[in-house]
Amino acid sequence: MPHGVMQTDNQFLVAFCNRLGYAFGDSKLLQAALTHRSHSTPHNERLEFLGDAVLNCAIAGLIYKSFPDLPEGHLSRLRANFVNQAALSNIALNLQIDKLIKLGEGELRSGGAHRPSILANAFEAVLGAIYLDSGFEQAEQVISMLYLPLFQNIDLKSQGKDPKTLLQEHLQSRKLALPEYSVVSTTGKAHKQKFQVECMIPSFNIRTIGEGASRRGAEQAAAKLAYEKICLPHESQL
After folding, report:
1. What is the per-residue pLDDT across 80-90, written as a single tens digit (0 to 9) for each?
2. Among candidates 57, 216, 20, 10, which has minimal Cα distance to 133?
3. What is the pLDDT of residues 99-125, one digit of tens each?
4. I need a surface site. Which of 7, 37, 75, 176 has the fewest CB within 10 A?
5. Cis omega before residue 179 (within 30°)?
6. Which one from 48, 52, 133, 198 is the annotated catalytic residue?
7. What gap in Å lies between CA 80 and CA 59, rounded to an integer?
8. What pTM does this model have?
9. Among candidate residues 121, 122, 171, 123, the one with its CA nearest the CA of residue 143
10. What does the alpha-carbon distance between residue 237 and residue 235 come to, in Å, rounded to a whole number?
11. Would you state the pLDDT for residue 105?
12. 52 flagged as catalytic
């Protein structure tokens, strides 16, 4: 049984490396990158520190080359959008890191495998491991492969602005009343609450519900849904 489990783990890791587009020379680096500190040592915190720096440098170079007409301020906001926790955790999920990350029992029980911070850190740790295994150029190639497809449909006008700001600006530009936000429900214990917030826009007869771990997060989620209902159909016709 242990031998079979080891084979299965190896198969998962090989499949992961195929998705990543990189094969590790030192498999211990990959194992460490996918180990949370709650599980054992060596864990991925130091690799995450390194990967964060590698990612920021690589992304800066990519957007500099991909968007030659953008001024510095726009480049900075664009980079921030590509290296924030939400963006990194989405890439980690696409790579199925949630199925490979090694967590302690407490983190497993509390759903740590799907926690954005844990996923984002693990992805950065993998990049740090690639850097140690083969150098910056190889890490940059992996980052390019993962990110360049995301550059294809960027709305440069909206980069760096949160959904509430985008929605407010859209309504103000048309001299319409601003959205009304109200808490619909609050569930869970004090340290792990979930909020539901309603966004009402009477002028469009729109009502959306957003969820989040904070009231602000739920408002942003509701605003995003409202913005997409109002704005995206119009933008697609331009």
Report:
1. 888 988 789 98
2. 20
3. 999 999 999 999 999 998 999 999 999
4. 7
5. no
6. 52
7. 9
8. 0.68
9. 123
10. 5
11. 93
12. yes
Q: What is the 3-state secondary structure (H, E, C) of the chain?
A: CHHHHHHHHHHHHHHHHHHHCCCCCCHHHHHHHCECCCCCCCCCHHHHHHHHHHHHHHHHHHHHHHCCCCCHHHHHHHHHHHHCHHHHHHHHHHCCHHHCCECCHHHHHCCHHHCHHHHHHHHHHHHHHHHHHHCHHHHHHHHHHHHHHHHCCCCCCCCCCCHHHHHHHHHHHCCCCCCEEEEEEEECCHHHCEEEEEEEEHHHCEEEEEEECCHHHHHHHHHHHHHHHHCHHHHHCC
Residue appearing with tokens 């211990």: 28
> Which pLDDT does position 158 carry in this prediction?
60
Q: Give the separation between CA 185 and CA 196, rounded to whole angstroms.
A: 5
124 is catalytic: yes
- Kindly name the residue from 48, 107, 124, 140 that is annotated as catalytic: 124
**pLDDT value at 159 more than 80:** no
d(CA 150, CA 144): 10
Q: Which of 49-65 are b and which e, b meaning 16 or more Cβ less than 10 Å from the residue's Cβ?
A: ebbbebbeebbbebbee
Q: What mean pLDDT is predicted for residues 210-236?
A: 80
